[in-house]
Amino acid sequence: MNWDQVEGKWKQLSGSIRQKWGKLTDDDLTTIAGSREKFVGKLQERYGLAREEAQKQTDEWVRAMHEKDERAFSKKS
Question: Tens digits of per-residue pLDDT, 3-46?
């Protein structure tokens, strides 16, 4: 999964996002609306992270979502 896919599935992924980053509010998720830059900014704001750390966590989460999708796809095949 890449960020374009995350953006397209933003509402569906919001539960996973809230599970991992519980300090993000529903209003935050609405404001972010799938924007990677806004997402990274909100992580910085809510968790007091440096930009690089917020980007790293974002990238790790996207990779984890990709791996989860891959496992689900391979089970269907």
Answer: 899 999 999 999 999 999 999 999 999 999 999 999 999 999 99
The token duo for 16 is 């996973």
User: For the chain, which domains are there?
Assistant: 3-76 (1.10.1470.10)
CA distance linking residue 67 with residue 25, whole number of Å: 26
* 33 Cβ contact partners less than 8 Å away, ≥ 6 residues apart: 10
* Cβ–Cβ under 8 Å, residues 42 and 24: yes
Instruction: Give the position of tokens 């391979």.
Output: 74
pTM: 0.87
